[in-house]
Amino acid sequence: MTEQNTKVKEQSRNGGDKLACLLQLCQQGDKQAFSELYQLTAARLNGIAYRITRHVDSANEVLQEAFIQVWQNCDSYNIDKSEVFTWLASIVRYRAYDRLRYDQRRHQKDMVQFNEMELTPQQLENINQYSAQVGLDKHSEQLLNNCLAKLEQKQSQSILMAYLYGYSREDIAHYFDTPINTIKSWIRRGLGRLQLCLNN
User: Fold this and answer.
1) Which of 72, 87, 89, 124 is the most exposed place for a label (fewest CB within 10 A)?
2) What integer pLDDT is reported at residue 108 of this predicted model?
3) Among the CATH numbers 3.30.200.20, 1.10.10.10, 2.40.100.10, 3.55.40.20, which is that of 116-199?
4) Spatial distance between the Cα atoms of 39 and 105, rounded to a whole number of angstroms
5) Which of 104 and 138 is assigned the larger pLDDT?
6) Could you give the residue ranges of the DSSP H alpha helices within the chain?
């Protein structure tokens, strides 16, 4: 028996460190122990991943990738350096920050850059179509541009994202890193101001 395994056994007898025992069994290729280790720690580790990524799907993927790494590299765990959960959490945090950087790069690449003063005729037509739906008359391009320019930038961008480019409220909230209720409020107030401007 290795010195590390001896220390794990002692931890188990003295403090009932179940995670350490399970990880030791994982090092021996015990898949049932790995499954139990996952069940005991997944919820807390998923919470760590979510607090970093702020996205449910990303956090879930981080968790799965982290446990694959745990299984493949469980022999690298050193009981003298950290507790088992601390070691697991460090793997999750590393993967979560890596995923966050990836998501941000992808989001920036995919995100349309908005300039309310450079709307295309088709975009303006879409605005006009929406205006008709809410009871507004058809307006000139210049008037629409002028009124959009008078809105707060986040209000006008949220309106353009929602009604010109088809982004969901959740997508817009993620883009601005803002609660979805705030996004709904921006759009509601922005549309109200837009309607007043167009009618004056």
Assistant:
1) 72
2) 52
3) 1.10.10.10
4) 32
5) 104
6) 3-15, 18-27, 31-53, 56-73, 84-110, 121-133, 141-150, 153-163, 169-176, 180-199
Among 6-15, 107-116, 139-148, 183-192, the range with the most confident prediction by mean pLDDT is: 183-192
Output the CA–CA distances (angstroms, integers) from residue 34 to 68, 93, 155, in the order listed. 10, 20, 49
- Where are the domain boundaries for CATH 1.10.1740.10 in the chain? 3-110
CATH number of 3-110: 1.10.1740.10
Whether residue 98 contacts residue 69, with contact meaning beta carbons closer than 8 Å, is answered with no
Domain with CATH 1.10.10.10 in the chain: 116-199
For residue 21, what are the contacts with CB-CB under 8 A and spacing of at least 6?
A: 8, 9, 11, 12, 33
Amino acid making up residue 66: A
Place of tokens 């179940």: 18
Mean pLDDT of 135-159: 69
Angstrom distances, CA of residue 128 to CA of 139, 148, 160, 188: 7, 13, 12, 17
* Residue 140 phi, psi dihedral angles, 5° rounding: -70, 160
Rounded to whole angstroms, how far apart are CA atoms 171 and 162? 9
Mean pLDDT across 114-132:
52
